Amino acid sequence: MGVPKRKPSRSRQRMRRAYNSVLQLPQLNSCPQCAAAYIPHRVCPSCGYYNGRQVITVKAQA
């Protein structure tokens, strides 16, 4: 296995780590029940519906 001869400079190290900020967040869909934004293939956090049926009960916000 290869071993580095020299320590990477701070600039090179930071350039490598900066790529994480380029990655995109998952796209949001609108819920067919309440029209709130939610992540696909997850339960809607505002109404608790998934795939047309209620999976969890959500308390009403006051």
Characterise this structure:
The protein has 62 residues and is an alpha+beta fold. The chain has a domain at 28-62. Helix content is 13%, strand content 13%. The chain contains one helix and four strands, in the order αββββ. It has a two-stranded antiparallel ribbon. A hairpin with a 2-residue loop joins strand 3 and strand 4. The chain is rod-shaped, with a radius of gyration of 22 Å.
**Strand segment tally:** 4
Q: What is the end-to-end distance?
A: 60 Å
Helix content: 10-25%
In the sheet with the most strands, the strands line up as 1-2
**Helix-strand pattern, N to C?**
HEEEE
Instruction: Please give the count of helices.
Output: 1
Structural class: alpha+beta
Radius of gyration (CA) equals 22 Å
Shape: rod-shaped
Strand content: 5-15%
Biggest β-sheet: count, sense, barrel? 2 strands, antiparallel
The poorly predicted ranges are: none
The overall average pLDDT, rounded, is 89
Task: Explain the layout of strands and helices.
Elements: H1 10-17, E1 29-30, E2 37-38, E3 49-50, E4 53-54
Antiparallel strand pairs: 1-2, 3-4
Describe what is shown at a glance.
The protein is of the alpha+beta class. The chain contains 1 helix and 4 strands.
Q: Top keywords for this entry?
A:
two-stranded antiparallel ribbon; 62 residues; alpha+beta; rod-shaped; 4 strands; single chain; two-stranded antiparallel sheet
